[in-house]
Write a structure and sequence with these properties.
This protein has two domains: 60 residues, Homeodomain-like (Arc Repressor Mutant, subunit A); 140 residues, Orthogonal Bundle (Tetracycline Repressor, domain 2). It is mainly α. Helix 8 packs across helix 9. It is elongated and about 60 Å long.
């Protein structure tokens, strides 16, 4: 413990710009919450992971819950950024964009396991209105993004006109949720990425206008 305190004391003496210090705390907290859980992990554990004094955390976040909610918000923003970047490559065809998004998300699942765990931890805290509110905002943003792509595909003439964009957005969001669960439980080794891609492709093929799709 003495070593932990001395490490934190040394780090505090190294002054970082506010933005960098906040990011350092967020990264450390993400690791701590992921290997434990929201209720058990304490700010002392987070400070030790970050190599800072515990009071430093409260200069940036008023409470452990505020820190957890900020992590959730950051996760949502990062996921949307990944999807937006993937979709931008095929902006002229929404079906191609959705297919690319699915493959990029699948490839990234194994590299962000801490963030995936925290999203599921947040579900266990659904009695807390602040945590629930942020988690709801994340998923509403995902669904809006999917729905906008589906609607754009309909305007492009590559997505079926009888599909409700909002309902389809929820379906795709649920599919992403299932992929996350598959990854965390280790089923990905049994199912295999090839089979998962086939599931994504099957739904997108169903969405496509016959004779148009991605090559119409």
């Amino acid at each position: 413990m003495a070593d932990g305190r001395s490490r934190a004391t040394r780090a505090v003496r190294t002054r970082l710009p506010a933005g960098e210090r906040e990011l350092q705390i967020l990264r450390a907290a993400t690791k701590v919450f992921a290997r434990s859980n929201y209720r058990v992990a304490g700010t002392a554990d987070i400070a030790l992971e970050a190599g800072i004094a515990e009071p430093t955390i409260y200069k940036y976040f008023p409470s452990k819950k505020a820190l957890f909610v900020r992590i959730l918000k950051r996760i949502g923003e990062r996921i949307l950024e990944v999807w937006q970047d993937a979709a931008a490559v095929d902006s002229g065809n929404s079906l191609s964009a959705l297919r690319r998004m699915g493959r990029v998300y699948l490839e990234n699942l194994g590299t962000h396991s801490d963030e995936l765990k925290i999203q599921f931890q947040a579900l266990a805290e659904s009695d807390d209105p602040d945590i629930t509110r942020q988690l709801r905002e994340n998923h509403k943003a995902y669904v809006r993004f999917f729905a906008a792509l589906i609607h754009r595909g309909q305007l492009q003439g590559v997505v079926r006109a009888d599909v409700n964009p909002y309902s389809s957005g929820w379906f795709l969001n649920g599919f992403g949720f299932t992929l996350t669960l598959v990854q965390l439980l280790g089923f990905d080794q049994r199912i295999g990425k090839r089979q998962v891609r086939q599931m994504i492709d099957a739904y997108l093929d169903w969405l496509a206008v016959v004779g148009r799709g991605e090559h119409g």
